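Regression test attached.
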Amino acid sequence: MTLESPHGHIQARRGYSRRRLSNRAMLVLTGLATVLALVPLFWIIGYVVLQGGKYINWTFFTQLPRPPGVAGGGVLNAIEGTVLLVILASIFSIPPGVLAAFYAAYYPNTPLGIAVRFSTDVLSGVPSIIIGLFLYAVVVKTQGHFSALAGGIALAILMLPTIIRTTEEMLKLVPPALREASLALGAPEWKTSLSVVLPAAGNGLITGFLLGLARASGETAPLLFTALGNEYFEFFAQVRSGLASGRDPFTILAKILGQPVDSLPLTLWKYAQQPYPERTQQAWAAALVLMGLVLSTNIAARLWIVFRARRMKG
Amino acid sequence: MNHKSQAALSVFGKFRKRFGRTLRHGDRVWQVLTVGMGIGVLLLILAIGWTLWQDSADARSKFGLSFLLPTLDASWNPVLDSFQAWPFIYGTLITSATAILLALPISMGIGIFLAELCPPWLRLPLGWLLELLAAIPSVVFGLWGMFVFLPAIVEPLGSTLAHTVGSLPLLGAFFAGPIPANGASRLAASLILTIMIIPTISAVTRDVFLAIPRSQREAAFALGATEWETISQVLVPYGLSGILGAVILGLGRALGETMAVTMVIGNSIEGTLSLLRPGYTMSSIIANEFAEAVSPMHSQALIEIGFLLFIITLLLNFVARFLVWRVARRSPQQEVR
């Protein structure tokens, strides 16, 4: 204060205007921080769509890769592999996850209930590459070869926390009266759980599965030492040749699950590091497909929650 | 009814009499299944830790503590079977620490904006956009990083830093140039990690602010505080342990992040401290070398790095969950009183 002021309140007002100024400045800064964080989102989405859109075409979806350095070819192996891995992951994660969630939702304060919720949280924090190492030691090393099975289980472990947590939340939202009514009518608990509570929580559960799927289908690290990658994988060709040589479906399935498969993220990772321009272009196209898949699953899951909440309210 | 089916009925009846009560119409099976799966989740974590511990036994007994100790000329030689993990530990620490330092102010800003300032109709869509940022697969971040982010941002920024901060006495060691022409460096990894952990930290920060009781804000406003003063002098101290938990969760994500980092960090084992030079992190060395490990000792050394990473993230998760849980538990009760 250089000015001598006879009135105290003028000083106070000056202090106040400075405070108001810094208030305004900081509030604007928080808004700017939000905008700043969204810049990479739009930059990535925009760039991948533009770049990937240039190189995407029909053969990309329908053909196997050509040798490096040769133009053309597609990533059919990776697309089929991704689907196969995600199906395996769902089979291995959804039933155990839902069962564990039933326990966590109905006995939240027992020691095991607390332990389940806590270890779910911890499991979601374990780096995905560690899960890859674990599955390598447990499945790949004992089987003696890389396999789709190992990759599917690795992705299942990654999906498990999401599934347990969302299922638990959704089960808690089901009005207890429904469950009690069913129990009072004499239905055993498992029947109540499966045919009353589970359908009532149904839509919410699908949201959880979708979020888990979105996470699993974008993962690369756990597949590096489990599914490994396989440029010659073609599901339908294998089924056809298996049937032609007269093997039964189970043998064919076991053969398919026992071999390495590719997935879109794995392909993207490998292609991005190769010096051939054709492969780089296909990497962008793969990025577009992968991102479209993951983000649309994610958005669909969230929209589902909103519409459901609105319907429940209305 | 013939004799045979009567016999079958009576056998079934005996079975029911004998086991019906124990099974309680199948409820016992249901209980065993749910409890079993609950225990399974717990066992899974123990199994992961135990497997990694077991499979790195030879490396642990051969290299002992020197595997982990800081050194400037670490050897990582699969041919001679001589391994030291310090360059990777350092790479992980420096990239994660830088990422946290950069992400924390931005995420706090976002958390505050979402919880306190933005109009309610904007809150949900903005939260969604942030979650979309978190949902973009790591490899896509890596691809974008390699071909777009490195040449456009990291390389120019790195050379500027090398020319300015790089010549300072003490701090200069961390910004010693030159940055490689393609920009692949620890700085690149730090910046990519910053972008990737912002959604995590800001979402938890937002939830912490939303959990703080209204009465705290009203009391501060009643004393004549401006909005910012309320936030910085009342709400931030109140939610501090929750914010700390958010930081630790973000740190856990940064430590474990693999693909994007591997694609932009340059993958080189150099004995320098500099952020502007290429490096390696614990997860990226595993991703790059494990599938092609040349000797049993090589893969054992990589598994030991994995074990270390597992233990660190486990501890961080314990601390973070505890802190967030404490804030969440404290708030509603105080509101009632």
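Expected vs. actual: identical. Strands of chain B lie at 76-77, 82-83.
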